[in-house]
Amino acid sequence: MEMHEYLDALSGQIRSGRARQAVREELEAHIRDQAQTYVDSGMEEQEALEQAVRQMGDPVEVGIDMDRIHRPRNGWKFLGVIAALSAAGLLAQYICIYRYGGSELTGNSITIQAFYRQCAYTLMGLAVMAGLYFCDYSLLSRYAKAAGALFIAAVAIVCMPGLAPVVAGAHSYIKVIMYVFIPLYGGILYCYRGSGIRGYVCALLWLGAAAWLALCRIRGGISVTIDVLFVCSLLLIMSLYRNWYGIRYRALPAAATCALAACLGAGVALNLSDYQLRRLEVILNPQSADRAYGYQTGVAREIAGRLELVGGQMPERTPIHRLPGVQYDYALLQTASVWGWLAAGVLLAILALFLVSLFIMVKRQKNQLGQMVGFGCAAILALESARYLLYNLGLGLMPAAGIPFLTYGRLHTVAVYALFGILLSIYRYQDLIWETGNRRKGSRRTMAWGVGKYRIRIERADG
Asked: What are the subcellular locations of this protein (predicted)?
């Protein structure tokens, strides 16, 4: 059989267009390389090509085996778990928060209309997640820098005077939009592979641009800013550990990254406002701290200390009657106050298992871009959830943006589901995305498969 006829028959069995083209190109390269080996051993060129084709085996059988693994995975398991957790979270919010209703509660009015809005926000988040699930995350390997620049410019423009409402001198209500920068930054780091010290310096500049955007344009929401910059710094250190930039002495830039992160943290600490410093004093020494500044922390600790393992407290003793913004900052404590620690602990354990499963899924990725982007998305979700738990126990300095599935808010809900969508996209396309590297023309290309009884390793080398 002629080579192109063979490849047509084989690739016709592969349903994914992206995999079909990639497999065809790599198999053609393998056949030509094998034929060249036969030519070098004294065989005629046409005979060598025919022999190389015959050696590949039946094209339909090979094509079916290739199609079996090189196609999108259905992430029904993760989608089902997220849908179930979304429903459970809404039910918990309704029973523990919104059924109370009324404007007599502490802080803003918490009415049933707010619950309906949260249902709409959840549906909006699920729609965003579904859209990203079907998108090819590997586009970040080509367009991450352009998307990152567009993101920074767009947010900076939105935060210009007169374009968006200013609350207490800041735009802290859009702080969670910085979640989006994390997967973009993972893609940006991937784009600089093999570029040496220049790539590392550019990665630092991008991190500086994100810090400028969060601290100088958005302002407010300092806790989210710290978390996002911390995760991005981890991604940069991971890229150095994997030697993406080809720097010989990787320990030096890694140490420099840690030092810069420490300097940034010190700068943030030195610029804490007076009330934040007083709240820090409450955390460190609640007995001698000013009660006015430590009121919320003191009440949260008092409520947490009275919680029963099973069963709730009297309604007037729950956070919703004593603390402001319960649906934002104390949803977990309110849940424990209504149901007891055991029920709240079960919810936390389920969420923890879900987050661990996301980390395991990311770790199993063979593509380095998927690993980097996925780790960033999972890390910010885990970090924010842990800080939210500490704050609800009265052990946190500043509130986290929220916890998945339990926190009220439009932007936070959509941002969390967007991260889920990116993680699901990584899972969906893990068998279609191969490591291509930053190749220049004529450079070596390598690819390996193990398909049933076929094991093919394809290498393309100069000459």
From this structure: Membrane
Token pair for residue 334? 């309110």
User: Residue 357, exposed/middle/buried by CB under 10 A (0-12, 13-18, 19+)?
Assistant: middle
Domain residues of the chain, as ranges? Answer: 3-71+445-460, 76-134+283-430, 135-271
Q: Please report, as a single letter, which amino acid is at residue 213.
A: L
pTM of the model: 0.79
> Could you count the other beta carbons within 10 Å of the beta carbon of residue 358?
24
Place of tokens 């570029």: 195
Report CA torsion sign: 354, 359, 364, 365.
positive
Beta strand pairing call for 445-451 and 454-460:
antiparallel
Q: Both tokens of residue 2?
A: 């002629």
Higher-pLDDT residue of 38 and 380 is 380
Helix (H), strand (E), coil (C) string for 337-404: HHHCHHHHHHHHHHHHHHHHHHHHHHHCCCCHHHHHHHHHHHHHHHHHHHHHHHHHCCCCCCCCCCCC
CA dist., res. 411 & res. 437, Å (int): 35
- The Cα 326–Cα 106 span in angstroms is 9
Q: What is the DSSP letter of 316?
A: G
Per-range mean pLDDT, top range of 16-25, 36-45, 186-195: 186-195
Specify the DSSP class assigned to residue 289: S
Q: What is the mean pLDDT of the chain?
A: 80
Number of C-beta neighbours around residue 3 at 10 A: 17
DSSP string, 411-427: HHHHHHHHHHHHHHHHH
Instruction: Count CB atoms within 10 A of the CB of residue 276.
Output: 16
d(CA 79, CA 139): 22
CB atoms under 10 Å from CB of 368, counted, come to 19
Helix (H, G, I), strand (E, B) or coil at 458: strand
Specify whether the CB–CB gap between 333 and 306 falls below 8 A. Answer: no
Identify the CA nearest to 230 among candidates 243, 244, 211. 211
Q: 134-138 — which CB contacts under 8 Å span 24+ positions? A: 134/425, 134/428, 135/421, 135/425, 136/18, 136/425, 136/429, 136/433, 137/183, 137/369, 137/370, 137/373, 137/422, 137/425, 137/426, 137/429, 137/433, 138/367, 138/369, 138/370, 138/429, 138/433
